[in-house]
């Protein structure tokens, strides 16, 4: 897949002075609900009204969407407000119905992206379309799978492509609903800088009070837009209530976000510098998170040593770690002195944790 200007055609055609905003309810519930939200969003920064018509659920028995009737509500909202409309498709039947309803933007969800068979079916159904087609990252952190989905769509001669970063599932407990793993989206962006990249902070966070911070990080990393779930009565939404915001809150978020682009001659430099600094911020946060996890393991070792009356310092084990890390560091271009300083500090912190446990 080549980096061609065509990839950004739909983004450029919008002629926006701000990142593209896709907003609306997680699920279309009633005609009144969809129209009410649309009218509250029509004079804001929102360009696309989104709503889930078919909702893939993890467990059977949960609300799985109103089905095709919801497309009529989206069409009516488009007629009354002028907002373009967007929804998720998961098979050929969904695609056919969405195209018949003249939906402007379609996206493939994270659960569908994991299956090349599903993506290929959708790509075949959309072959040659001028509709905007976005593909969310797969549920698991697999860049190749994500890229494969993009390539299947591109081979079906779909010009108006883009991707949505919605975070990745993990068995580990986290403050996020889906861990961002920003480095994966950054790598995709580095490979295909002309591919529009949208952040979905609603699914990354799972909590409405975290949406602003994740949105700001995305913009600092030079994302092209945001998809934010918006509902007039979020607490009583039929799906994903905790992560939806009111239209009023969305408007305030848009006002408070800092768009780090410059119009002066130094603008390109400042944009690149801010992007690189944002990448460092992401990596630093990951480092702190990993160090915290390492110390929790050290605590478990301390408990085990206490039970068996074993000394904290195990010199042979420590020398093995140092030797291995010095070698690994060299492979990454890190000096021996630097690696020694870092791991001596980590080792001392581990000892402090274990001694605290032994002293009870």
From TrEMBL:
Enzyme category, top tier: isomerase
Pfam family of the protein (one): DAHP_synth_1
MF terms in GO: chorismate mutase activity; transferase activity
Entry EC number(s): 5.4.99.5
Keywords: Transferase
SUPFAM superfamilies linked: Aldolase (SSF51569), Chorismate mutase II (SSF48600)
Gene Ontology biological-process entries: chorismate metabolic process
Annotated Chorismate mutase domain residues: 267-358
SMART domains, per the entry: CM_2
PANTHER family with a match to the protein in the record: PHOSPHO-2-DEHYDRO-3-DEOXYHEPTONATE ALDOLASE (PTHR43018), PROTEIN AROA(G) (PTHR43018:SF1)
Name this polypeptide is given: chorismate mutase
Source species: Robertkochia marina
Lineage: Bacteria, Pseudomonadati, Bacteroidota, Flavobacteriia, Flavobacteriales
């Amino acid at each position: 897949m080549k980096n061609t200007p065509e990839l950004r055609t739909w983004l450029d055609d919008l002629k926006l002075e701000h990142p593209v905003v896709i907003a609306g309810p997680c699920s279309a519930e009633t005609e009144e609900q969809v129209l009410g939200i649309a009218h509250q969003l029509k004079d804001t920064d929102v360009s696309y009204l989104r709503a889930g018509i078919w909702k893939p659920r993890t467990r059977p028995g949960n609300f799985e969407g109103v089905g095709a009737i919801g497309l009529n509500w989206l069409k009516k909202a488009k007629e009354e407000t002028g907002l373009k409309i967007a929804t998720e498709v998961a098979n050929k039947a969904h695609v056919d119905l969405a195209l018949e309803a003249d939906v402007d933007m379609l996206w493939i969800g994270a659960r569908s992206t994991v299956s090349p068979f599903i993506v290929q079916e959708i790509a075949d159904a959309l072959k040659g379309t001028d509709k905007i087609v976005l593909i969310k990252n797969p549920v698991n952190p697999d860049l190749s799978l994500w890229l494969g989905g993009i390539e299947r769509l591109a081979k079906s001669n779909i010009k108006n492509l883009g991707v949505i970063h919605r975070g990745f599932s993990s068995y580990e407990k986290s403050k996020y609903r889906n861990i961002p793993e920003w480095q994966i989206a950054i790598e995709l962006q580095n490979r295909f800088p002309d591919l529009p990249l949208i952040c979905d902070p609603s699914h990354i966070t799972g909590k409405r009070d975290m949406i602003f911070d994740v949105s700001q990080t995305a913009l600092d990393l030079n994302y092209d837009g945001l998809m934010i779930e918006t509902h007039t009565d979020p607490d009583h939404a039929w799906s994903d209530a905790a992560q939806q915001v009111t239209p009023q809150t969305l408007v305030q978020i848009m006002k408070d976000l800092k768009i780090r682009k410059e119009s002066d001659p130094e603008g390109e430099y400042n944009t690149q510098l801010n992007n690189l600094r944002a990448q460092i911020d992401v990596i630093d946060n990951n480092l702190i998170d990993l160090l915290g996890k390492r110390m929790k393991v050290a605590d478990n070792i301390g408990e085990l040593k206490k039970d068996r009356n074993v000394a904290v310092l195990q010199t042979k084990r420590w020398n093995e770690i140092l030797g291995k890390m010095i070698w690994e560091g060299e492979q990454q271009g890190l000096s021996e002195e630097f690696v020694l300083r870092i791991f001596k500090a980590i080792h001392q912190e581990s000892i402090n944790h274990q001694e605290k446990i032994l002293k009870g």
